[in-house]
Amino acid sequence: MITRLATAVLLVLAVAACGQQASGPGSAPAPAPAAGAGAGTGGFGVTERAFVELSIATGEQAVRLLDLGFQRAAGAPLRALAHDVAADRQAELAELRGLLDTERIAYANHHAGHDMPGMPTGAELETLAASGNGFDAVFVRLLRAHLEESTTVVRSALGSVTHEATRAVANRMEQGRAVALHRLAEVAGTG
Amino acid sequence: MRKNLTRWRRAVRIGLAVAVAATLTGGGLAANPDRASAVIRVAEFVAECQFSHRLPDDPIVLPALPGASHSHDFFGNRATDAFSTYQSLLGATGNCNPAPDISSYWVPTLFRGNTAIVPSGITFYYLGEVNNPAAIRSTPVGLKIVAGNSRATGPSDSIARWSCLHHGEVPPSKNFVVCPAGSMLETYLDFPQCWNGRDLDSADHKSHMAYPVAGNCPAAYPVILSKLRMVLRYPVSGDTSQLRLSSGAGYTFHGDFFNVWPPAEMDRRIRNCINVVVKCGPNGNPI
Questions:
Q1: Over the stretch B89-146, which tens digit does the pLDDT of each residue have?
Q2: Which residue of B has its CA nearest to A119?
Q3: Which of A7, A13, A27 is most worth mutating to test chain B (most B CB atoms within 10 A of its CB)?
Q4: How much is the CA Rg of chain B, to the nearest whole Å?
Q5: Which terminal Cβ of chain A has fewer Cβ within 10 Å, N or C?
Q6: What pLDDT was estimated at residue B264?
Q7: Residue B27: which pLDDT band, with cuts at 50, 70 and 90?
Q8: pTM score, two decimals?
Q9: Structural domain boundaries of chain B?
Q10: What ipTM score was computed for the predicted complex, to two decimals?
């Protein structure tokens, strides 16, 4: 009995609530949908920018890894490889920064301290620095991870990026990594 | 689920009885203190979600770049990946209660050593918490919001909050806290709720949104939305020395939200829970 009465009361309340709806604040204005993921326009879109900023952050960490390798590796071929890949990264960083400069975008590091694919972390660099006699093996492992994982990122970008100048840099990045991985296999294979 | 339903039913029954009493005695809804105690005067509704999947993707920060992100744990919408857009998410399903909320929510993955840890409790609160909750509007569809500072270099530039479930004696911290055995590590993250009324995203993914100042939205962000609060619980206690997020230390905790609530469902909750300051459950009805 009480339920039936209560239902009636609720109905009254519900109607009152509906009445409030018309005069209430209602929903926010619906803006036009934002541009999509930025792919496919040929311009320097959000995907291009995200890729370039990530690649700079990754490249800067890679240089730290490579400098450490050049200074500390016991094997001369490994030191030479570290030197050459570091030079590649420096050239690449200049190209990547050039893309942002052309677009008048100030670089910001969004990924510092993160465990990004292909980016040697601070903890990994500390481990390497403290690896003593095992230095070369740890360096080879971290360099391979950098090259392989950053290749994945570059290929991902080549699947989405349409801005020509960015694609050109990404293509060079992919080729450079393939060459470096080949050399690393040779060097690591010879111990 | 069943337990919640039972509790909800009981609450409704009590609410009905009080409403009837209020009506019979001629008391108004707002004026009668007895009636006021029947609903909980907190502007809130919730979505209780599950872990969905883990990917090195981020559709906001690294759009269309699969595999380019640090690891994320995704909740809600089952289809979220690097290519997600509002339209693509709209065509998918989610795992939240309420089911209509197919929004996408994600956070960095928590690791102990190299073992990823899945949060076991995931609740998204939508709250008033401004001076004028009656002015709060529905979150626009497709809005993207990022909260927290993934680039924090220490506690001073972080809004992260870590605490222990049911162990308030452990002081909350911006970094991981050591929780007693049997407890759980939990983290709270409040999203900005003042919108510029124009952009669903921005170049830095932050500047289209702002936090209220002393309960009011800044002039450049005039549209007041409900505040999203993520509360995650991890089945973790004890030593924190091996804990890390894919974004670094505990103070780098951050969260992302991509709104795919059906507008009618969101509108109803804003109207019935937030604007009138009533605590609601996942179904958007008072509890």
A1: 999 999 999 999 999 999 999 999 999 999 998 999 999 999 999 999 999 999 999 9
A2: B70
A3: A27
A4: 20
A5: N
A6: 98
A7: very low
A8: 0.79
A9: 45-269
A10: 0.73
